[in-house]
């Protein structure tokens, strides 16, 4: 006997499905392009610092 939720979501997912389904307009949204640019910039800075020191 499986327990059913009124929303039709999985009970065994420990709330992760509900977390990812919700979109909060107050939260910070970062585009994937910005994350990649920041990662490349940090990598270049670290490589330059290793080369200098």
UniProtKB/TrEMBL annotation:
Principal location listed in the UniProt entry: membrane
Membrane topology of this protein: Single-pass membrane protein
Coiled-coil stretches noted in the UniProt entry, renumbered to this chain: none
Keywords: Cell membrane, Membrane, Protein transport, Translocation, Transmembrane, Transmembrane helix, Transport
An annotated GO BP: protein transport
UniProt keyword ATP-binding, yes or no: no
Cytoplasmic side: 1-31
InterPro entries the UniProt entry points to: Preprot_translocase_SecG, SecG/Sec61-beta/Sbh
Gene Ontology CC terms: plasma membrane
Location in the cell: Cell membrane
Spans through the membrane: 34-52
Family: Belongs to the SEC61-beta family.
Subunit structure: Component of the protein translocase complex. Heterotrimer consisting of alpha (SecY), beta (SecG) and gamma (SecE) subunits. Can form oligomers of the heterotrimer.
Main function: Involved in protein export. The function of the beta subunit is unknown, but it may be involved in stabilization of the trimeric complex.
Protein name: Preprotein translocase subunit SecG
Organism: Methanochimaera problematica
Gene of this entry: secG
């Amino acid at each position: 006997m499986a327990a059913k939720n009124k929303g039709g979501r999985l009970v065994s997912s420990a709330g992760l499905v509900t977390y990812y389904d919700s979109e909060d307009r107050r939260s910070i949204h970062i585009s994937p392009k910005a994350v990649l640019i920041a990662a490349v910039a940090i990598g270049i800075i670290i490589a330059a610092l290793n080369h200098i020191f």
